[in-house]
Amino acid sequence: MKNLSNELPRLRVAGTEEEMVPGPQLVESLRHSGYSYWTAIDELVDNSEDADAKNVNIDFYSKGEMVDKIHSKKDVDLIVIADDGNGMNEEELRKCHQLGSVRKYGKEDIGKFGLGGILGSIAIARKVMVVTKQHGTIIGRLTDLDNIESKGKLVSTHYEESQLPDYYLNMFKERVPDEQESGTCILLEQLDKMSTTRYGNIRTKLMAHLGQQYFSFLARQTLTIKVNGERVDDQHPIHWDDAPPDARVHEDTFDWSDPSGKTHTFTLQIVDLTSMNVATKTGQGGYFVRNGRLLCGGVTNNDSYGVSGFWNDHADSRYVRWMIQFSSDSDEVMGVGFQKKSIQWHKSLNDKIASIVKPHHTRIAAVTGKKRKNGVLKSVNDQILKDIKDKLNKTKNGVWDIHVHDLGRYGESTEN
Q: What's the confidence (pLDDT) of residue 25?
């Protein structure tokens, strides 16, 4: 049968090109893009680090007062993130509030796509105020979802220093004093999408999460992060820095060429935590680090990440950790998404890493499995149960008694 489409004349059709401005309902839809409060805060810390900040302070307020560990049961209604970075001029601040703004990212920058800062913020808060100073000039911009809804269009409000409400200006100056030439302060209000507002829960999560996400910056002391004045300590995702030499079973930096011929550089580390008494079943597997910032971890075979040929989650594998480090130049082959919390890497790269990691995993898991079958780990599980019982009976009314099977699929041969 003839393909008539090849014989038809190609006609130039006159028309009018029009810009299609997104409607305000888009914002409400984007609020369900999958950000948690901790990944939303990650995006803001990323921006601070890219702005050459040395210090990031994250403060939580309840009814106008900063909360602390003593008041851990208070509910948070305001988050303030401040840094001593380069600040922004008017155009940069406008783009900061624009979804998908175009900006140049350096090879070592953590940012990507120009989405995360504002998208992460509106995912947990209905009102986002940013006050910034560059070369001594203070300006601000507010994105208010209630205002967008009432106006029926995407809008944000610009403020000169003289126009800023005293509340915002005072918050800013408390954190970026007059003698400091630059810095930025972000206030997140009306926190209607937080999974919890209890400060104690938030603090516990953030201290551990931020310590892992930014472990390389914190360890090198190029960045200091504080949560309500409490310094976040670096926590190496695979405990490499703490591991004795014989536990560091593999380390190599190598080049790999993608199908187009482009060369990418990766660093692979594998650790055996058998002797360290720090491993948990839920932490086993791979960790992916981009430009020094952890994207995701504890990854075993996972179709959604394109990870295959390694192993399925199992108690015998709890001591095996591996980590792959790469730069943003490799974002395409690593399949880094705009939220920077997952990967979907190239199949041939997956296979190369699996061929290196799997023999180490097989050896380590076999030793652990033998110990478990011989009952060596029974005393470990007994101690775990005792610790959990003690904690429960200190915090709950009545007497609690639990057994290994009560801990679910993560109970056997774990330490938490």
A: 81
